[in-house]
Every structure is written in C-alpha cells, then in structure tokens.
Amino acid sequence: MDRVLLVRTDRVGDLVLAIPCIQAVKEAWPSCEVTFLASGYGAPVLENNPYLDRLLVYWGESAGELTETLKRYTFDAVVCFFPTFSLSVAFFKAGIPVRVASGFRWYQWLYNKRTYLRRSQALKKEWEYNLDLLRLLGWQGEYLRPRVYLSPQEEEWARDVARKEGWPEEFVALYPGGGQEMRWPLHHFTVLAELLRERGLAVVVFWGPGEEDLAGALRKAGAFVAPPTNLRQLMALISLAKAMVANNTGPMHIGAALGLPLVQLFDPRRACNPARWGYYGIGKRVLLPPVPRCGKCTTKCEYYPCMEGIEPQEVLEALEEVLRGKG
C-alpha cells in the first residue's frame, strides 16, 4: 500500500484512542503515506505525531464535497473507526479500492472489508478494537497504547505559563468537567482539593468551554486555575502535572496518552464500561460508584445520583497509590 486514510471525526477522547493505528500502519508499511481525517475540534490532538504524514480536517462537509477532496489523494485504502452514512458515501464515490469498517449498519455494503466485533461487550480496550480493524489490511503487529506528542516549543510555552501563573513545580491536575459522561459532583472535587492542600499538594484545575463555573468554584477552595486554552495548550499544561484526577472525558484520555499517573472517575452505565474505555496498570486507577451497571441514567433510578457514592477520601487514597507507582 502506498496511501492509507484513517478516519475518526467525532469526540477528542475517541480520537485519542485511534492514535495507535497511525504508528501501527507506519511501522508495518514504512513507505506508506498515512493521512488522518479528523474533526476540526479534535484534529489538533494529532499534530506533531511523527508517524503521520498528512492531517485533513473535516468540518461537516457534504458527501459530495468530501468526495471531491478525497479524489485528489488517490488513497489505496480507508479505515473508518466510526462510520456515518455521509462519510461512507464519500469513500465509496471517491473510488477508494479498499474500504474498512465495522459492520452492523444498514449502509455497511459501502465497505468491502468489514468486521463484526461487538464493542459493547467490552472484551478489550477501545484502542485494541481500532487496531483490530487494521488486521483486515494485513497488519499483524502487537497492540500499541495511545500516545500524544508535544513539540519542544509547546513544552517551553507551558513551563513559561506555569511560572507566570505562580504554579508550584509539582501539582495535581483536576478536570471536573466533561461531555456526555456523568460527572463526579463538584462539591466532591472541592473537598478533594482541600484534602490535597492539607497534605501539601498543590492543585491546578483545568477546564474547557462552558466550564468556567466549575473552575471558579474550585478557585474559591484554594486551587490554582488554568487560563483559557486551546486544545494544544491544554495538552501542554496538563503534561506538567505530577498526576491527574478526571472524569471519563477527553482530557482524561489526553492525560493517559501523556503518561500521567491517573485516577479515572467512571459512571456505571454499560456504554461507559472502563474495561473498554479505562486504563489499568502501574500508575492508573479506575473508580466507580458502588452500584449495579445500568443502561442509562435517570432521576427515577433508586441509586440516583450514584456518583455521590465515590467519596473524596477514596479518590485521595487512589491518588496516593498512583503517585507511589501502584495501580
């Protein structure tokens, strides 16, 4: 193969979990030109990746518009990790000879190589499911873990910001926000910040668009608060942390891909199963509320709001473990 297109156009965390496929393709076929198509919001997470030759940004163009763009590159194969009908039509009409995706969709006929693994069973990690799609191209490598890459300039920028903000050299990063997951309560994050301060550990709170209120509440609890950032700047600043505590959201995956000791706060919905989405091993801990698995969250549930059941003291103890190199 001379030119391969990899595609994931939804959320940042999902995109991070597709990153190992870039390295896998490049190592299996060193002369292959690897292109990634990602959403405008998520694409920056792929910048500076040494295994990536080209980054294309998808802004929700029509299938016809995307088709014309793809035709310019004469790809030999496309691997789509999260197909939509519009994307699938574009790959087909662009004449890409080998089109790889999972099955189970009514438009699966637009792909000529398909796998029927049910990811909802959570039998392996999401990034392993992604890598398994490459096996349909002939890839036979070992599973790789997600990793993001910062430039020396970005690292120096982050250190300069930290100095100007007066952050200590060692701090714990907290990310109290998130997207579609059920969040750990803000007042629990506040208690955790106070417990960390009592133990001489500084706290820096990171946040994204629409999460200013969360950051402000934790500032009142004595935490440092990161300035407004774009995605690359957020990555660079998080990389300075000694460890991280986060909800199951994009920055959690970024923290893992940066190699940080990490405490991950998961809700009990089956779609968010940490067996699929979480990180285990040295320096990693997953915490769940002590309730049964469920299909969806509802205020009528007898356990609602179940995330209250993860106590700040439990999170503190998990954090102390990952800081000691345990998991």
What does this entry show, briefly?
With 327 residues, this protein is an alpha/beta fold. Helices cover 33% and strands 17% of the residues.
Overview features:
single chain; 327 residues; alpha/beta; Rossmann fold; 2 domains; six-stranded parallel β-sheet
Structural class: alpha/beta
The CATH topology of the largest domain is Rossmann fold
Helix content: 25-40%
Give the number of helices: 12
The amount of beta strand, in percent, is 15-25%
CATH architecture label of the largest domain = 3-Layer(aba) Sandwich
Terminal Cα span: 40 Å
| Biggest β-sheet: strands ordered side by side in the sheet | 3-2-1-4-5-6
Give the rounded overall mean pLDDT.
Answer: 95
The low-pLDDT segments are: none
Give Rg in angstroms.
21 Å
Folded structure, characterized:
The chain has about 325 residues and is an alpha/beta fold. The protein has 2 domains: about 140 residues, Glycogen Phosphorylase B (Rossmann fold); about 170 residues, Glycogen Phosphorylase B (Rossmann fold, 3-Layer(aba) Sandwich), CATH 3.40.50. A 6-stranded parallel β-sheet has the order 3-2-1-4-5-6, sandwiched between helices. A 6-stranded parallel β-sheet has the order 9-8-7-10-11-12, with helices on both faces. Helix 3 packs parallel to helix 4 and helix 7 crosses helix 12. The longest helix has 14 residues. It is globular, with a radius of gyration of 21 Å. The mean pLDDT is about 95.
